[in-house]
Input
Amino acid sequence: MRRSFKFLLRPTSKQAAALTRCLEDHRELYNAALEHRRAVYRKAGVTVRYGDQSAELKHIRADDPDGQGRWSFSSQQATLRRLDKAFRAFFDRVKAGRTPGFPRFKGRGWFDTVEWPKDGDGCRWDSQPHHPSATYVRLQGVGHVQVHQHRRVLGTVKTISIKREGARWFVVLSCDDVPAERLPATGAVAGIDMGVASLVTTSDGEHLANPRYLAVTADRLAAAQRDLARKKRGGKRRRKAVARVAALHAKVRRQRLDGVHKAALALVRDHDVIVHEALKVTNMTKRAVPQPDGNGGYLPNGAAAKSGLNRSILDAGWGAFLTILSHKAESAGRELIAVNPANTSRTCAECGHCAKENRVTQAVFRCTACGHTAHADVNAAINILRAGLALRDAAGAA
Ligand SMILES: [Zn+2]
Output
């Protein structure tokens, strides 16, 4: 099983400056490679490939020994591959007939990760294994950087990345062959509804990852953004305001991710089987694309039920949650079932009557046939659980 581990770095001020230069040089390499692809395409209509650009790295490094030449060849290749991936995604979007956004130049602050694709190649995890109290990671051009290793690393370290979040630096290890940490069976099953007031509501009526605690930070972020808008360009005060906004953004992200991890962990700990709504790929973009049904109409795509909300933020939250949940479920040996979310929020869990009038408000469900009332998300979670168990039975019978 593949898994990643993320740790806070404790660089010296000299190392922090080197990390910043490392990121900055990789950003320049990315932008230069992008410009190269654009220019060649414009002039000659030829598509430059990753292999072409990788072959030029040797010369770039030789011409700039104190700049690009300082860093790991492999991490630079990884950066060129990242650009290649952006282009592939671009061409895929063109092919699919979607509105393609051309790969963009990365401005300062929009390039925060450098990856070393192989432990031992320009980088070394646990570079001072005999140190009595601390863990270090060695990064070419930066040195041995101290790591706040708050948990054990499992499996074999494959790739090592550094990541800047606001003023803090992290190291992310991607590990292979991570052994599963199976949990004892509980005999319990749960359906989960992914919603707005709470990220997750279970069929038992539990609300998890309630984002309300985020509201305080979000308010401070809004205030910091208003403050920033009033600052003159190029001033020292503006720079400070920008840093404050970035730090609060990072805090919101951390808090949200923390809530998501805790919710996923609680679900996996307490249940053997977890059923969730399948998120369609189209739901992951800002607008759900209508799918023709072949008879001149359109298939339901789940867009209506949750429209009018800030979908991109919600979808990103749900997507991240499901990714984390699936990792934890796999590791614990739990079963995860995805079901089609159609009608789960408008069907009565008591009598099965399905009507959109059943959903009185975002929070209240009242069946127009039998009068059953419930929290709308709990009602949906029960339907989701039933659909999942039915799928499971059908699979078992086949
Ligand atoms: Zn009913």
Helices lie at 13-44, 50-63, 73-95, 214-230, 236-270, 311-332, 376-397. Residues 3-176 form one domain.
